[in-house]
Automatic annotation (TrEMBL):
Residues 689-704, 724-743, 750-759 have a biased composition (Gly residues). Residues 590-610, 674-788 are annotated as: Disordered. Residues 363-630 form the Penicillin-binding protein transpeptidase domain. GO terms for molecular function: penicillin binding; peptidoglycan glycosyltransferase activity; serine-type D-Ala-D-Ala carboxypeptidase activity. It holds the Pfam family Transpeptidase. It comes from the Bacteria. One of its GO terms (cellular component) is outer membrane-bounded periplasmic space. This is Penicillin-binding protein.
């Protein structure tokens, strides 16, 4: 037992003497003796050193960080991700040349000494004293291994790494104590194996297997003599001897290793000379890690897997615990990604929106009843270059998405419809639905009654949209005033509660603003949130939380717990079936006709927002639900008028003419070869009047309304010749005219608005728009017929 003073413990001199005696008795001496100007009693000179006996004898070895492999639902690889590129291999899977080379150059007497090499220390101390600097070190492989453990445990924290590598006597003391323990517990071969798996070889390669793959594109067991010498030489200074960027220095270092092996008679001088004469003969495999390498445009799907792992408590109780587990890696994660769906999503995206366009698109597809995310993609790829991003435009902010999401326009109206139906409002309920009207004087909310103190107004897209309307035709034509009159009856609170039941929350966090304009989609939401919400209608009124991980195994091959979907009833089956009926009308003969699928039941809703800064189509079949957003990805957005997207010019962008076809093509490919079940629906005869056809005005005149019981066909010119105007009876739509074409000529048809309209005219009626949104929300949410 060390003699201690009553208040301060052993003196520094006694502490140093105690340490030296223990070192000698152990057959070793502190490697710090090799440092210039520091002798056995250098411990006393400066700094504080923990008493040797007080250092814990047990070294807690952290698991080595390794690659994590992310797979699709069929077992195909999506990407490999890692904090540190490492593949742990047993000693037998490492070339004998490599094992010998690292021992010969780093610690030639490794198998003859204990945890420290006394002869090596004395030799190094002598050389350092002669040179006046540190010309030679004396750390054994065991000590180097212990230091690497400290570095591995520090992770990517710069401060912790600095502490783990600082040249202090205190650290050397701990290093020695742990080295003695490691020698006793592991033995030489296991230490050598662990060292070769933990050490850094440069070029992001940790461990000899990763280094062998990086520099020579082969397994460590297949390394030749010269290749082994090259890798062994890089360990001393991976940047200085980097064979890719410093081939001359690397060659010199390789030849030094070969010479050393010959001196120790582990190879012949002839072998050394032959290898020294050879060029490096690298076959470099560049680092391939991270979601940027994901196949079929699944970079953001991959990133959502990472976000799920880092945020879901099932993977660890604390944020720090989850991050540590992810960084350690070695996981195999099987996801819900359906390869057929993902390929179809990506093809549709690239067919309709170019990466270099001023706007972007994001698409998410989920499976009703399971919550499985089947596909996720966007036109701006995952990355750091031009027209690339690391923001997942499909996700909420908390999961790597945009700060505020994107206003969803009229795609929110079915949520209001569901809330109204749940309150007993009949789908045949009619409202006067004038073209333009004040917001209600008062609307009930979850708290204080909202009052229209500013005389705020709301209007429809076109002057031809004049009621009365019932729910079916109002939904098909997306009549703003109808739904504002409806929210006056339902109140805001039931709508917010319905949204919550359907998993809809503001993408940026926080709570919904309790204003009646919520009916027109003024809140910023995410495509994944909207796809999952609409899946509720397809699933007979039951909402299921989105999930992305099917299964996962840890580095030991054992199964990990993974998040499971949670399903809960959001509305009655009757309500869901009624909404199905309403939204089928949208794709059959309403604003979403261009998005309809052939040969299977489909339903959906278009949406376009103020100044056309966002356009949406959200739709579903009984077996898939998907959401498509198109808009400016930045904070300011892009006004989508007189714009070219995917090589196609648009005088104005609508939910039907850009998001709709993206959804149609993505879903068509995803569903190819799959069953075509039918929706639950309810009988609901059409009650449309002939007084409000869809707007087509891109052909010189607004298309007249068609036969009773149908809505406009969402046909309009796109700046490339225009399309044929409608010819049915009734009043014309008021869309903005394009060039060419003739006005409707059937009885009751009238020419459209004056060419061009006035400044600030988004409706094409030749008059400036009026503000339409109260309560501080965005103004002028567009949702007229044929234009969503």
């Amino acid at each position: 037992m060390a003699m201690k003073r009553s208040d301060e413990g052993p003196s520094r001199a006694r502490q140093a003497a105690k340490f030296l005696s223990v070192s000698v008795l152990s057959g070793v001496v502190l490697a710090g003796l090799a440092l210039p100007g520091i002798g056995a009693f250098g411990l006393v000179a400066k700094g504080t050193v923990e008493g040797f006996d007080e250092i814990p004898a047990s070294l807690k070895t952290p698991p080595l960080s390794q690659r994590t492999t992310i797979l699709d639902a069929e077992g195909g690889e999506i990407a490999k991700v890692y904090s540190r590129d490492r593949t742990v291999v047993p000693l037998n899977d490492i070339s004998p040349y490599m094992r010998q080379a690292i021992v010969d150059i780093e610690d030639a007497r490794y198998y003859q000494h204990g945890a420290i090499d006394l002869k090596g220390v004395l030799r190094a101390a002598n050389k350092n004293a002669q040179s006046g600097g540190v010309s030679e070190g004396a750390s054994t492989l065991t000590q180097q291994y212990v230091k690497n453990i400290f570095v591995e445990e520090a992770g990517d924290d710069p401060e912790k790494v600095a502490v783990a590598t600082q040249q202090t006597i205190g650290r050397k003391v701990k290093e020695l104590k742990f080295a003695i323990q490691v020698e006793k517990e592991l033995g030489k071969d296991r230490i050598l194996n662990n060292y070769l798996n933990i050490t850094f070889f440069g070029q992001q390669a940790y461990g000899v297997e990763a280094a062998s793959q990086r520099y020579f594109s082969k397994h460590a067991k297949d390394l030749t003599l010269g290749e082994s010498a090259l890798l062994a030489g890089t360990v001393q200074s991976p940047s200085r001897y980097d064979p890719v960027y410093a081939p001359k220095e690397a060659t010199k270092r390789r030849n030094t290793v070969l010479q050393r092996m010959a001196e120790l008679k582990h190879i012949t001088p002839a072998q050394a000379a032959a290898e020294q004469a050879k060029p490096l003969e690298l076959k470099v495999s560049r680092p391939k890690s991270g979601c940027i390498t994901a196949v079929n445009g699944a970079g953001f799907f991959c990133d959502y897997v990472r976000e799920t792992f880092l945020n879901d408590p099932v993977f660890g109780k604390t944020k720090e615990a989850r991050a540590k587990r992810w960084n350690e890696g070695g996981l195999v994660i099987r996801t819900t990604l359906d390869p057929q769906t993902q390929k179809s999503v990506q093809k549709s995206i690239t067919d309709h929106v170019y990466q270099s366009d001023s706007v972007a698109t994001a698409v998410s597809i989920v499976q009703p009843g399971t919550g499985k995310i089947l596909g996720m993609g966007q036109s701006r790829p995952y990355g750091f270059g031009d027209h690339m991003t690391q923001i997942n435009l499909s996700a909420d902010k908390a999961m790597g998405g945009s700060n505020y999401g994107f206003q969803v326009g009229s795609t929110f109206k079915p949520i209001l419809a569901a809330a109204a139906l749940e309150q007993g409002i009949s789908p045949y309920k009619t409202y006067s639905s004038p073209f333009r009207m004040p917001y209600p004087d008062e609307v009930e909310t979850c708290g204080k009654t909202w009052k229209n103190s500013g005389g705020e107004m709301v209007q429809n897209e076109n002057r031809s949209e004049v009621g009365p309307y019932g729910m079916k035709e109002a939904t098909a034509k997306s009549v703003n005033t109808y739904f504002i009159q409806m929210i006056e009856d339902t109140g805001v609170c039931p709508v917010i509660k319905m949204a919550d039941k359907m998993g809809i929350k503001p993408a940026g966090g926080g709570k919904f603003e309790q204003v009646p304009s919520i009916a027109l989609g003024t809140e910023g939401l995410s495509p994944l949130s909207m796809a999952s919400a609409y899946a509720t209608f397809a699933n007979h009124g039951t909402y299921c939380t989105p999930v992305i991980v099917e299964s996962a195994t840890g580095p030991d091959g054992k199964n990990l717990r993974v998040p499971k979907t949670k399903c809960s009833r959001a509305m009655s089956e009757q309500t869901a079936d009624t909404v199905n009926t309403l939204l089928q009308g949208v794709v059959e003969d309403g604003t979403g006709k261009e998005a309809g699928l052939s040969g299977r039941d489909s339903a959906g809703k278009t949406g376009t927002t103020d100044e056309r800064r966002a356009a949406w189509f959200v739709g579903y079949t009984p077996n898939m639900a998907g959401a498509v957003w198109v808009g400016g990805p930045g904070a300011k957005g892009v006004e989508m008028e007189n714009i070219t997207i995917g090589g196609v010019y648009h005088d104005k962008v609508y939910g039907a003419d850009t998001p709709g076809p993206i959804w149609r093509d993505a879903m068509t490919g995803a569903l190819e070869g799959k069953d075509a079940p039918t929706f639950g629906t309810v009988p609901m005869p059409g009650t449309d009047k002939g007084s409000g056809g869809g707007a087509s005005g891109g052909t010189g005149g607004g298309a007249a309304g068609t036969s009773a019981g149908s809505a406009g066909d969402d046909k309009r010119g796109n700046g490339h010749g225009g399309r044929k105007p409608g010819t049915g009876g009734g009043k014309p739509g008021g869309g903005k005219p394009g060039a060419g074409g003739k006005p409707g000529t059937e009885p009751g048809a009238q020419p459209g608005g004056q060419p061009g309209g006035q400044t600030g005219d988004t409706t094409g009626d030749g008059k400036p728009d009026a503000p339409t949104t109260p309560g501080g929300a965005a103004q002028g949410v567009i949702s007229g017929p044929g234009q969503q």
